[in-house]
Specification:
alpha/beta; 7-stranded mixed beta sheet; 4-stranded mixed beta sheet; 14 strands; globular
């Protein structure tokens, strides 16, 4: 059973170069429209059709591109190991460097945990990849063991935890609170052996302790811990 650490990329101009605080790479509409896999790419990631998360995960894991995606570094952007990009691709947080992929493979990340969509930057000859991690849907969260609070209390010393013991109760609380946040998420034990986790409703990814340590050891750039951390646990652990 792995321990997990939530991760994020940097918003600091001194690290990513740009002042938008969000992204370094842009995939232009014209390039996407002319891409050989445009229709499927659009249906899966850009304007995803409504479907069960499990069905989406299966299709997205098996998706391949006929050609790399053409992208551009925005003005003043620096190349880092983890890079934000636009437009948003559903379930895809970052464009990552080949060094990140090498670490993934060394740790034992397998093809059931990620899909890598190749990227070609016009301003850099090195290979890059859009990282897809299959999403764990809300329905699989063990709400009775998790901790949830109103998001406006995120920076408070005292949080009023909500009495939510099921997914249906979680949905019902959206009528009372415009936004809720997790302090602790408990998942079924089957997810405890993975190296990466993506959980519906949580913007950031979670890396296993081993994977996180390897990224720190190799001093990957634009890789850090978020200010407000979420703990992940597993049923019976």
């Amino acid at each position: 059973m792995n321990n997990f650490q939530q991760i994020t990329n940097s918003a600091e101009p001194r690290i990513i170069g740009t002042r938008n605080g969000v992204y370094q790479i842009e995939f232009k509409d014209q390039d996407l429209a002319q891409h050989s896999s445009h229709e499927k790419l659009d249906r899966l990631f850009i304007a995803p059709s409504k479907r069960l998360i499990a069905d989406f995960n299966e299709e997205a894991l098996g998706f391949t591109l006929d050609d790399p995606l053409e992208g551009d570094l925005v003005s003043r952007a620096k190349v880092t190991d983890f890079m934000g990009f636009c437009p948003y691709f559903f379930c895809c947080n970052y464009v990552i460097s080949e060094q990140v992929v090498t670490i993934f493979r060394a740790i034992g990340v397998n093809d059931s945990e990620i899909n890598l969509l190749p990227v070609r930057l016009r301003q850099d000859a090195a290979p890059y990849f859009v990282l897809f991690v299959p999403m764990i849907p809300h329905e699989e969260i063990l709400f009775e063991h998790s901790l949830i609070y109103p998001s406006n209390q995120a920076l408070s010393d005292k949080r009023d935890y909500l009495a939510i013991d099921s997914y249906s109760a979680y949905k019902a609380n959206f009528k009372k609170f415009t936004s809720m946040s997790f302090e602790r998420i408990v998942l079924p034990r089957e997810y405890g052996g993975r190296n990466l986790l993506s959980i519906q409703g949580v913007g950031n990814l979670f890396f296993s302790e081993q994977l996180f340590g390897a990224c720190v050891e190799h001093k990957l750039t634009s890789f850090q811990v978020p200010r407000i951390n979420i703990e992940v646990g597993f049923n019976g652990a």
